[in-house]
What does this fold into?
Amino acid sequence: MRVVIAGAGLAGLSCAKYLADQGYKPILYEARDVLGGKVAAWKDEDGDWYETGLHIFFGAYPNMLSLFRELNIEDRLQWKSHSMIFNQPNEPGTYSRFDFPDLPAPINGVAAIINNNDMLTWKEKILFGIGLLPAMLRGQNYVEKCDDKSWSDWLKMHNIPERVNDEVFIAMSKALNFINPEEISSTVLLTALNRFLQEKSGSKMAFLDGPPPERLCQPIVDYIKSKGGEVHLSSPLKKINLNEDSTVKNFAIKKDENQAEIVADAYVSALPVDLFKGLIPKRWKGINAFSKLEGLNGVPVINIHLWFDRKLTDIDHLLFSRSPLLSVYADMSITCKGYEDPDRSMLELVFAPAKNWIKKTDQEIIDATMNELTKLFPSHFLGDHPAKLRKYKVVKTPRSVYKAVPGCQELRPNQESPINNFFLAGDYTMQKYLASMEGAVLSGKLCAQAIMNKAEKLQNKND
Ligand SMILES: Cc1cc2nc3c(=O)[nH]c(=O)nc-3n(C[C@H](O)[C@H](O)[C@H](O)COP(=O)(O)OP(=O)(O)OC[C@H]3O[C@@H](n4cnc5c(N)ncnc54)[C@H](O)[C@@H]3O)c2cc1C
It folds into this structure.
């Protein structure tokens, strides 16, 4: 059975992989000349890689981890110590750590919080612990119901001191969805906290050992091809053509200067939600599953790469900057084997929230970033012999993952659409891991499953 998939991000690749596993023939069309979508990366003129985003893999990513196992590339994940490390803006150049001991969950998480005395007082820790109990005890159903509140409102309702928000959750909220706690749905934070506190290695982090298109996406493509599937780059979906009964007749795909009408038994959009919205056929616009997508909108984010003339840190981990302009960052010359440099640092930083910055010039963004870094590390950038920025790269994504504000959960569509031969994959579709790499991989798997469940019906129709 032939399945045509548009979009070779992690969702489209995962969908094709799991279809190929079951003997289906997936044919994947990607608009760009690079695999991976939001994990895409490119080489600059010196051969250095720059990426759409700094990407972290978590222990709480079961579907992503089994994908690595199935592809036999598990050794490409570089696991770090089980810790969360925060900059201390009030004591420049210093860090505060939450170290998770080798104990069962949630004891390891509780111990990590109890043992950190730099950021929260005892009273704040106790009030936070009590406030979190309903989420831990009442599970995911409760967490889903909290989608009507922002994280700031949820904290207030549970009498959790404002300082807990300022010290810990501004950084976490920006790391999870590139927005602040007043905007983000409490479902996002509670989902992450539940995974982190209920699974022993849930918050353990890994970096990929090199650029995602080469080290993760290409092995998926090789696997798909080895099973008879096809993957075509530079081949955008231009139009979804319909039959009289409003099912899909074909996908119009542009290749070079030509347009081909590709016919299959089933059709999948693995496009980001913003781009899919622009391709929804007129006749589908009144259908609730499609019209409600209007409420899902990509959030802007900027990924920055700074190459310095010397080593600035010796930390082999992700860092939460706690700067108002920046989110997480890492010294990739240490954390990532493929970008290793024993003498000079390459900092990769996520700049968020980026709403007021996305239209500014690269130079303005770099100046603001260097200003923030000077506040965090005055000893490196002030004085007689300051560190020199050798070069930089700014990657802007004006519409990245959907902005997870309150009320979004009920707008997220299922992988099986109301159209009989049309399916959706993508991190924005309904699955329990929100907008993440894990969410994208799971959505692809669920989409493949939905197609398989309907296979008999789909094939009969085309006989
Ligand atoms: C800066 C940044 C940092 C991030 N950090 C993390 C992290 O640390 N951990 C984590 O888990 N997640 C992180 N994410 C989120 C993660 O990258 C995404 O959730 C995930 O990669 C989305 O995958 P997707 O396949 O759903 O969508 P996409 O990756 O957007 O893939 C969609 C694909 O469709 C293609 N396409 C578009 N239009 C067409 C068309 N007309 N025809 C054919 N193809 C088309 C696109 O080119 C793209 O390849 C981060 C994202 C960003 C931007």
